[in-house]
UniProtKB/TrEMBL annotation:
Binding sites annotated in the UniProt record for heme: H91
Name by which UniProt lists this protein: Succinate dehydrogenase cytochrome b556 subunit
Gene, per the UniProt record: sdhC
GO terms assigned for molecular function: electron transfer activity; metal ion binding
Localization annotation: Membrane
Length: 138
């Protein structure tokens, strides 16, 4: 009788399936785009800090503004600003892609792939065009 009471008091272990992970799933373009969308969102946070630093330097006076412009005008500074521009455009296009999905469209496999490819190609092309226009105007 004591043995039966001990079995009743012990909780029964339920076997559950393991969560799928990257060893199970084959990486898909839309899956990678979701990850990149999150990464660009984080990058935009730090890029906005750079924008705030530039505006604060502009308000602080000509010397501070010249220092920040020299940093941002260096090769490394321009590379960071180029990356920030790409992250901004890529994140914006990803938001438009999600807006299309929110309308109930674009869920077919071919449409999802097309939207993901358009997001990648569009963000790269728009970034390059924007920087070319910036250099022409400058």
């Amino acid at each position: 009788m004591a043995n039966a009471d001990a079995k009743a008091a012990t909780p029964k272990v339920v076997e559950r399936p393991l969560s799928p992970h990257l060893q199970i799933y084959r990486p898909m373009l839309t899956m990678m785009m979701s990850i990149v969308h999150r990464v660009t969102g984080g990058a935009l946070y730090f890029g906005t800090l750079l924008l705030a630093a530039w505006l604060i330097a502009a308000a602080a006076g000509p010397h501070a503004f010249d220092v920040v412009n020299a940093i941002y005008g260096s090769f490394l500074g321009r590379l960071v600003l180029f990356g920030y521009t790409w992250a901004l455009i890529h994140h914006m296009l990803g938001g438009i892609r999600h807006l299309i999905w929110d309308s109930g469209r674009g869920f077919e496999p071919a449409e999802r792939e097309w939207l993901a490819r358009a997001n990648i190609i569009g963000s790269i092309a728009l970034t390059i065009v924007l920087w070319i226009i910036g250099y022409i105007v400058r």
